[in-house]
Structure formats: structure tokens, C-alpha cells
Amino acid sequence: MVVNLIQALYDPLRPLPQPNDRAFYEQALVEIHSFEIASQVYYLLKQRGQLEQTPLFFQRSLEQKFTEVLYQNMFIKNQTVQIMEKFDESEIQMIPLKGVLFAETYFGHIGARWTSDIDLLIKPSDLERAILAVKSLGYTIEEECVASHFHWSFSKRIPGSLIPLTVELHWDLLKANTSQFNVNELWDQAARLEPYRFIQQLSEFHTFYMICLHGWRHNMSSLKYFIDIIQLIYYLKDRVAYMRLFEIAAAHKTYKRISRTLSIVYREFPQLEKIVSLPIEQKSNLWWDYNAIRDSNSRSFKHYLNCLVFHLMDFDAWKHGLVGVIEWMLPSKAAIGYELGRHDKGNLLLLDYLRLYKKRVLNLIRTIRINKTL
Question: Can you tell which superkingdom this protein's organism belongs to (predicted)?
Fold first, then answer.
């Protein structure tokens, strides 16, 4: 349902649902809060002068969440600036990824996109110094680093918050041995971020590439990944440079990931063709299902086909697909926690695997039962 609202936000020819359609806006709010996109929807409505065309209860709910996000992002920006100053002082090269800088640059407001942590790209040779730098700022809660992954997380307790603030130090954007992605290209085309000497900002091209890969890595499991990509397309327009993107993706062995991700976005939001045409044949068997991400009880066999494609077939080389399958069958402790929906790390790994497999089997059985009753 909220897809219709987002389509209207990006298409001036599509009217918003009538404000007296309370059932629509109530259900839209449920989905908006579930996908954590209240700040994006609020800011887009406000920016387009359409907020008053929605019911008052809808406006107030969005405004309350936007205010919460604004204050949180202001705090995270303050912490980000401290880290950038520390890295610059220590002569450590770094590129901020996503976060408040992305919100300010591409959405136009610090509160226009919810941010929960701080993602930084560093060079592998600077990893040890970067760890010392973030620890000196209080980020001393260290998560287990998985050798095949491309980031290391450090957190610190925040007064008044039950959830610690996390800094993720990335030295790549994809797991090892799943592509031929060359992260050095990002560094070569990044520009210096004023007023710093060693802090850089991703080029527009690589920002779009990164956001597409980020959405794929999360299997487009939330509308927030769609909004990120859509917002960039509207912001960049013809600067998206699709032909260059697909040429580089083919060289990096990420072509299937990028093409399928964009095909899903364009299928759900066909008005994007009026902004920048997607120069590839869009397949009909994408398997991605909106109902499955909106409601886990609505998952069909299409959802499991989507998971199969994601873990096995979204790779340009068979050896990369094999690594993807192994990662799915034997995920890291952090990945298990993400899939199980919890953050504690104290359990035995074997018990975590048993809980994970139990959840997957029960979800499959539930799907079989639901489809039998249809």
C-alpha cells in the first residue's frame, strides 16, 4: 500500500490518496514505521508541499518520527565530525559511507533519512591505526571480525540510550571471493572533503554503484533501499551513466547483482523510465515479492525462489555463487543475529545454527500450509 504513496511522491502526475481514506493512511503508517522510512516520507511530502493533503493523524505521526530522526542524526553527525577530525589529525585516509553526509547531499536535509550507525571506508593498510583512532574516542566494544567479511564494528554506550552507537570500519564493499570488485577505483575517483586533508567523498557514480550493491546485499528487503536508489536517480538524472555502470559491473563480476536490483526497482516504480531509461532487458521472473517483505506471514514459494536466486544465481561466476551458498548455510555469528532479529553475541555458535535452521524450516512449513489453503 505504501508503494502507491511513494509512487505519488515521485510522480507529479499521480495524485495522493484522498485524505478521508483513513484505512489507506492507517495501513500506510504501519508499513512506513515497519520499513523505518517515516523521515523520508515526511520530508518528501513537505518538500513537495503535499503534507497538508494527508490526514492530520498521519502528518503528526510522521512529524514526530522526523523530529526523533533529526535529533538522532544531529548527534551522529557530531560524532562523525569528531571521528573525521581524529582521522585527519592522524593522517588516516577515510571516506564516509551513507549516513548523515548522504542524507544532506542527496536528500537535502540531515533529518531526511534515518541513520543508526557510522560507516567508514578505510584502506586495509590503515586498519590498525583506524582501530586505535576509534577506540581513543570511546568505541571500545568490539565485535568479532569474520575473515571473509569486509568490515569490523566498534561501539560505545550512549547515555540515555539502550542501543550503543556503532562505527563500522570497511575496507571493501563486498565479501571476499564473491566478485572481482576493485575498491581502489573508489579511492582514485573520490574528491577531498573540505576542510579536511585526508577525508574524501565518493564520486556521484560510485555513490550510486555503492547504494545499488547495498540494496542487493540486503536482498531489497525494505522500501528504504528502494527510496535510496530512486532518490539518487531523481537527483543525478542523466549523470547516472548506466552504460558505464554496466560495463564496470561486468568487469567486476557484479553485473547480475546490479541489473537485477535495478530491474526490481524499475518494475515497482515504472515512472523512473521517464527520468532515466534502464538500457537492459527487464526480466519477468525476478521472483522478488513485496508482500513477502511487508508481512512474513504472506511469504509464498516466490519468496523462497527469490532467496535461492539471491544466494546462488545472482553471481556472474560459479565460484562466487558457491561462496554465496556456503555463506548462507554457515553464516557468521553477526549474520545469524541479524536473521534471528537479536543482537546478543554470547550464545554458542552451534546453538545459534540450530535456532537459525529451526526458524528457516518453520517458515518453510508455514509457507507450504498457507499455499495449500489458497
Answer: Bacteria
